[in-house]
Write a structure and sequence with these properties.
By secondary structure, the protein is mostly beta strands. Helices cover 0% and strands 41% of the residues.
Length: 185
């Protein structure tokens, strides 16, 4: 295990055993833990569904189908699920009543490429990557000519590009003190 930022050492999770919870997905991605519900949700992108592992009894159930080929998932600090949808080319927040709120689907009047991964910050903002992975390989349908990392501010509804020089921004996370953002390219 290579730890680049020593503040991650304080988390002491590196000796946890790896466990297989489920088989039968074509492409599993975007795991997110819901501490209130005590379950793990993740996306099975080509099967257009989200699955849920329930800690209490070890069951895996279909959580959301269809899911608009969702990819990255997280939970915000109010316990609401946030998902990136390739097919919808948007980021959505699922409210506690089950309704969906579109967080972002356009930037400068153009449709997003295919939001891929998302993280929530304690200040209420959501940060997400927008590579072309969910678009046809010939580039058809692409409206944004750059691959962005975005920040959405729910206080005023603004969407800001914080970086647009990535080849293919993918996963992202904050450092344990949440002052630094890491982006896999």
């Amino acid at each position: 295990m290579l730890v680049i930022d020593p503040s991650f050492n304080a988390l002491r999770v590196f000796n946890s055993p790896i466990q297989r919870l489920h088989t039968g997905t074509l492409w599993a991605e975007g795991p997110a833990w819901c501490s209130q519900g005590r379950y793990l949700v993740w996306s099975d992108i080509p099967n257009d569904r989200q699955l849920r592992y329930i800690e209490d009894d070890g069951r895996v159930t279909v959580f959301r189908s269809p899911s608009n080929n969702s990819n990255g998932n997280t939970f915000d600090h109010q316990g609401r699920q946030i998902s990136c949808e390739h097919r919808g080319r948007r980021v959505v927040r699922y409210e506690h009543d089950g309704s969906a709120t579109v967080i972002a689907d356009k930037y400068d009047g153009k449709r997003l490429n295919s939001p891929n991964d998302v993280v929530a910050h304690p200040d209420g903002s959501y940060w997400f990557t927008d590579p072309p992975y969910g678009l046809p390989s010939d580039g058809s349908g692409r409206e944004l000519d750059r691959n962005h990392v975005f920040r959405f501010d729910p206080r005023d509804g603004s969407l800001t590009s914080v970086a647009d020089d990535f080849e293919g921004p993918n996963g992202l996370c904050f450092s344990p003190d949440e002052r630094r953002l890491y982006v896999a390219d």
